[in-house]
Amino acid sequence: MASSAAAGASARVDLDGNPIKPLTICMIGAGGFIGSHLCEKLMNETQHKILALDVYNDKIKHLLEPDNLPWNGRITFHRLNIKHDSRLEGLIKMSDLTINLAAICTPADYNTRPLDTIYSNFIDALPVVKYCSENNKRLIHFSTCEVYGKTIGSFLPKDSPLRQDPAYYVLKEDESPCIFGSIEKQRWSYACAKQLIERLIYAEGAENGLEFTIVRPFNWIGPRMDFIPGVDGPSEGVPRVLACFSNNLLRGEPLKLVDGGQSQRTFVYIKDAIEAVTLMIENPARANGHIFNVGNPNNEVTVRQLAEMMIKVYSKVSGAQPPETPTIDVSSKEFYGEGYDDSDKRIPDMTIINRQLGWNPKTSLWDLLESTLTYQHRTYAEAIKKVIAKPVAS
Ligand SMILES: NC(=O)c1ccc[n+]([C@@H]2O[C@H](COP(=O)([O-])OP(=O)(O)OC[C@H]3O[C@@H](n4cnc5c(N)ncnc54)[C@H](O)[C@@H]3O)[C@@H](O)[C@H]2O)c1
Ligand SMILES: O=c1ccn([C@@H]2O[C@H](COP(=O)(O)OP(=O)(O)O[C@H]3OC[C@@H](O)[C@H](O)[C@H]3O)[C@@H](O)[C@H]2O)c(=O)[nH]1
């Protein structure tokens, strides 16, 4: 099996028909949701080597142990915090390419831990950019669709026909402005930090020749995203919406709709999105110097519609009856605290990624929820039963 995988991998060619040379990749934040899927794909389908850096490795343990895995030796884990670890520069120097995924990226933290959020997304990323620039190493940096903030259309009167015009809501890498709320709305601490690191990377490219690619993910979702509170994360923790709603479904509780669940999102399946990143890794001449939206414009729903669909899908995959009260409304102040604000709508323009890399997402929202909720049910249903059965300490 190992030899056929290796044979397949050695026959890989880039989009211009040239053979792909095996790379050494320094992947920072490799132990997270996106990192775990990227490591998995690169081990299964390519010959690249990964130096996997993170403070945790639970989500990639299956790739690191046992020793006789087919890719043995091609992935090594380095437990380190990039805030203060002198090994960082050496690991970047040993690699052909650095991919930076490390971040605090859960909205519940943006207004409650704004300093940690800004440090994590801006200050801690600075040495990574500097070491790449000084050592002439290529950088793929993970930014976010949140840099667009709110749409221009959201400022029009509710009944304006212009709200239906894509010019007022489709988000384009090279044209759309970044529109955030006031400083008191600390929700935007994350988006603003990500915007400034994007500008710095862009400037390093312009002034010092840094070879970079910036990725703006639009709500990538799938297995291993975040944590289930009280099972593999803090019981008071608030993960992103997929894990919040999964947790509610697993516990048979109503799903909480923040401010009525009117905000709109487009969701893309993690496995589709990872294909786009692999294309960036293996086609530097087409990816360098670009900022890419990576999302699925066809999978748009309001958060309320997402909740309704997840309830239906979960019933199908678990055989359980939907909760009697399927959803409840909750104010953002109650759910996230003071200083929360929201992006109204997020439709990625796909022109640049289509033109440069020929990438298109494939998986419908229903299908991606079906495979993800099947995973959530298999992974967590028994553990949740035990947590619920445990008597609460008095
Ligand atoms: N998942 C999405 O839809 C999405 C959307 C927009 C942007 N992004 C961006 O993509 C990147 C990865 O996101 P994710 O969803 O995989 O998040 P994640 O939280 O699952 O992964 C981030 C990883 O970085 C690690 N990390 C954080 N600080 C670190 C430090 N100081 N030293 C070492 N490791 C550190 C964490 O331990 C974690 O494993 C982030 O930059 C995020 O802002 C993700
Ligand atoms: O239980 C919940 C959780 C969340 N929500 C709502 O669901 C929507 C999506 O929430 P998410 O937690 O997935 O986070 P957002 O889409 O707002 O931001 C995310 O976008 C891109 C990334 O950079 C980050 O991972 C994160 O900031 C928001 O409108 C939020 O208010 C609920 O209605 N109920």
TrEMBL record:
Coiled coil regions in record: none
Keywords from the named record: NAD
InterPro entries reported in the protein's UniProt record: Arna-like_SDR_e (IPR045869), Epimerase_deHydtase (IPR001509), Lipid_A_modif_metabolic_enz (IPR050177), NAD(P)-bd_dom_sf (IPR036291)
The keyword Secreted appears for this protein: no
Domain NAD-dependent epimerase/dehydratase: residue ranges: 25-295
Pfam families: Epimerase (PF01370)
Keyword NAD in record: yes
Protein name: UDP-D-apiose/UDP-D-xylose synthase 2
